[in-house]
Specification:
26% strand; alpha+beta; five-stranded mixed sheet; 440 residues; 39% helix; 16 strands; 7 helices
Length: 440
């Protein structure tokens, strides 16, 4: 009888614990639902844009119970403070009472990657920030990726300082409003902490083994969820407290290149019809123009052009300038066109080599090796046909006579090694006739 009463008591305790867990779950769901309704009301309570997200964050001057942030908007940096070709950063004013994550990605081209990296680090340290990560690669295309952390109020000043160390080629600035996410996490943490506390109280009062095991399992799950929520909250708060800037530094003069396109067309017109065709067929002794289009395909200026062709026996000064100035500098993307006028008497296959050296915008040599490119253009010549003239007939007869003589000489040379065969036959025939005469 005592055993039955103890079993009935355990059953009633387990049932009571189950009811309490259901009540706790219902309370947690109700809290979450109330919070969802609250945040929705806050998001749509006015048109001030306090819940806006994305790259552009609307300014707000309303006070908030959460506080934090500087209410004075920061001015956008002067464009003169940026490097050559700089792009002014997007103005991202601080929001009173909002939790905003500021991030930026920038690409700056400089002449010395190592020195620029040191300068960038010094600029950030001057603002109270620090270097968070670095990845550097060496020649032939040196570059460095630096990740900086700065206070949100120094974000605009940091962008201006980093953009001034060289030529700003690319910039991407974003701002994400995570206020609602942080409020949601804080509310869920409070609910989870209360649930954990209630389970600990129940666990301290439990005496049945089965109830203790069940309560410990549920408590472990709730504590794990609570720590996960706290970790997510710390991560967001860290991102809000320090803005992140990823700076990529590249070599401004790292890749000098040039391309040359060679074409041809029949007629002499000082290159006015350039470009022509890569392969051309013309009648013998037809006036022909060869075109050479030289393009700066790299990221540096090119100067001191040279062109040589041993087949045509010409240099750059011998050619007709169609477009551009061979004596000047060629900036990236620009082209230079020159032409050579020839009258081919036979098939023509050029071997044109163009060289140039890399310079900066002031014409100072950058120290890299000269760039070079060799191209070929084919010009096939054909006999025009028709009735030959007296001169052409005489030339053809003479060529035929020369060829016959060459054939005879070749035949004689081929027979000389076998001259002993007729002699041997004559000698054998003579020896065979002598006995016949003796018998007679």
């Amino acid at each position: 009888m005592r055993r039955r009463r103890r079993t009935g008591s355990s059953t009633r305790f387990v049932a009571a614990v189950g009811v309490l867990l259901l009540v706790v779950g219902a309370c947690s769901g109700q809290d979450s639902g109330d919070f969802g309704q609250l945040t929705a009301q806050n998001s749509n309570s006015d048109g001030s844009g306090r819940a806006s997200t994305g790259t552009t964050v609307a300014a707000s001057t309303e006070d908030s119970d959460r506080g934090g942030g500087d209410s004075a908007p920061q001015e956008a940096p002067n464009r003169d403070d940026l490097g050559d070709g700089g792009v002014a950063p997007v103005a991202l004013p601080n929001q009173v009472g909002r939790d905003i994550i500021f991030t930026a990605e920038m690409t700056v081209a400089v002449s010395d990657v190592g020195a620029a990296g040191e300068q960038a680090t010094q600029e950030i340290q001057r603002l109270g920030g620090f270097l968070f990560g670095q990845r550097t690669t060496g020649a032939p295309n040196p570059s460095s990726v630096l990740t900086f952390k700065v206070r949100p109020e120094d974000f605009q000043a940091a962008l201006a300082a980093l953009g001034s160390i060289g030529e700003l080629r690319d910039q991407n600035v974003t701002a994400s409003d995570v206020t609602e996410r942080i409020v949601d996490l804080e509310s869920r943490i409070q609910t989870a902490a209360a649930s954990v506390e209630r389970l600990r109280i129940l666990l301290g009062e439990a005496t049945d083994i089965e109830a203790i095991v069940e309560l410990e399992s549920e408590l472990l799950a709730r504590e794990t969820e609570l720590e996960t929520l706290r970790g997510s909250l710390r991560t967001l708060q860290d991102q809000v407290s320090l803005a992140t800037i990823a700076l990529t530094i590249t070599q401004a003069a790292s890749n000098p290149q040039l391309t040359v396109e060679a074409t041809a067309y029949p007629v002499h017109d000082s290159g006015m019809s350039c470009p022509g065709e890569a392969e051309l067929q013309v009648e013998t002794a037809t006036e022909t123009t060869l075109c050479f289009e030289i393009t700066n395909a790299g990221d540096t200026w090119l100067d001191d052009f040279e062109l040589r062709d041993p087949v045509l026996d010409v240099v750059l000064d011998d050619l007709v300038v169609v477009f551009g100035d061979p004596a000047g500098s060629l900036e990236p993307g620009d082209s230079l066109i020159v032409a050579a006028e020839v009258t081919p008497e036979r098939d023509l296959r050029t071997q044109t080599t163009v060289t140039a050296r890399a310079v900066d915008e002031e014409g100072t040599e950058l120290g890299s090796r000269p760039v070079s490119r060799t191209v070929t253009v084919f010009v096939d010549t054909v006999d025009p046909g028709g009735i030959p003239s007296f001169t052409e007939g005489l030339q053809a007869s003479w060529q035929l006579l020369v060829r016959l003589g060459q054939t005879l000489v070749l035949a004689l040379g081929a027979l000389i090694p076998f001259f002993w065969i007729p002699l041997l036959g004559w000698f054998a025939w003579t020896r065979m006739r002598r006995p016949a005469k003796a018998e007679e």
